[in-house]
Amino acid sequence: MHYPINGMKTDKLFYRIFLSQPDLISELVPDIPANCEFDYSAPVIKETELRLDGLLTPISDDLNLPLVFLEAQMQSDIGFYGRFFASIFLYLRQYKIARPWRGLLILRCRGQDLGANPPYQILLDSWVHKLYLEDLIGVKDLKPNLSLLRLLVIPDQEVSDSAKAILDDCDTSAEFRLRLDLVEAILINKFPQLSIEEVRQMLNLREADVTQTRFYQEVFQIGQQEGEIDIVLRQINRRCGQLPIAKQVQIKSLPIADIENLAEALLDFKGMADLEIWLDNMATV
Fold first, then answer.
1. Is 47 exposed, middle or buried (0-12, 13-18, 19+ CB in 10 A)?
2. CA geometry: angle at 53 spanning 252 and 219, to 5°?
3. 0.85 surpassed by pTM
4. CB 53 within 8 Å of CB 89
5. What is the dihedral angle through the alpha carbons of 71, 166, 133, 104, rounded to the nearest 10 degrees?
6. Do residues 179 and 144 make contact, with C-beta atoms less than 8 angstroms apart?
7. How far, rounded to the nearest angstrom, does the alpha carbon of residue 235 sit from its chain's CA centroid?
8. Helices (H) and strands (E) in the chain, counts
């Protein structure tokens, strides 16, 4: 069976999905309440330069809420389990973590070879949850968050109707715009050969609706910074503390390319000092 997600930048795509749909993590990992907010990062494990796809950290003082180590793996890789668990335990030791943890693996299909199971079987059985995207293909009446992920693997001819159904299920205009942004991000990754007009035709939306999406704004350079800035400022406030007005103005004045670079650099920030250094470096470029 063909799963048309080759060439996708899956790390950034799943970062975007989980950041925009925080309830999705509670649907996939048991014992996490639906209203639990997380900060999303991609930390480097310094000793071996291993990088985790994503680390979801509860924004809460409740130390019973677990860290969630998220990995999206679309291909077979016999060294995957070794790297995944090595990264987790090096991170726990390096940062002296006191919370429990869970693993969440988003996999293309059950046939992927990720390495030998026996050395890690206890961990896989007890602490790691797997979502096989192929299992979503034939399922109807999924929750909206899982329906978004289902778009990644369903046959091409079903994508248009499924995407429209996801958008038709929105209750508010804000929810519609947020979901439309994610749907378009998925479709552009799934069908990189499509033109803008073809994406619009596939979704069969009024032009007034399409122009509110981040994808449309980026392509046509209409208010393109607003969506990126909102996400970046929110993440900065969570990671570095409340930004002074002067810093907010400075960041809002950055070109869109610099906003995108800041969004990536932010994953490695530990506090306000890192942000100050980054902004100072940009000022001298």
1. exposed
2. 40
3. no
4. no
5. 30
6. yes
7. 13
8. 14, 7
Tokens in use for 189? 């990754």
Report which residue type is found at 102. Answer: R
As a whole number of Å, the CA-based R_g of the chain is 20
Query: Is 68:55 a contact under the CB 8 Å cutoff?
Result: yes
Contacts of 26 (CB under 8 A, 6+ apart): 32, 33, 34, 36
**How many residues make up the chain in this entry?**
285
Of 119, 120, 100, residue with least CA distance to 30: 100
Residue 69, SS3? strand
Q: Please give the angle made by the CA atoms of 80, 102 and 16, to the nearest 5 degrees.
A: 75
* CA–CA–CA angle 244, 245, 250 (5° rounding): 100
10-residue mean pLDDT profile of the chain (285 residues): values are 47 78 86 82 71 86 93 93 94 92 96 95 96 92 91 91 88 83 85 77 61 50 56 78 79 78 78 85 72
Asked if residue 164 lies in contact with residue 139, where contact means CB atoms within 8 angstroms, the answer is no
Report how far Cα 207 is from the mean position of its chain's Cα atoms: 27
**Whole-angstrom Cα distance, residue 163 to residue 143?**
13
Which DSSP category does 117 fall into? S
Sheet with strand 67-73: strands edge to edge: 38-41, 54-58, 67-73, 101-107, 128-132
Cβ(194)–Cβ(156) below 8 Å? no
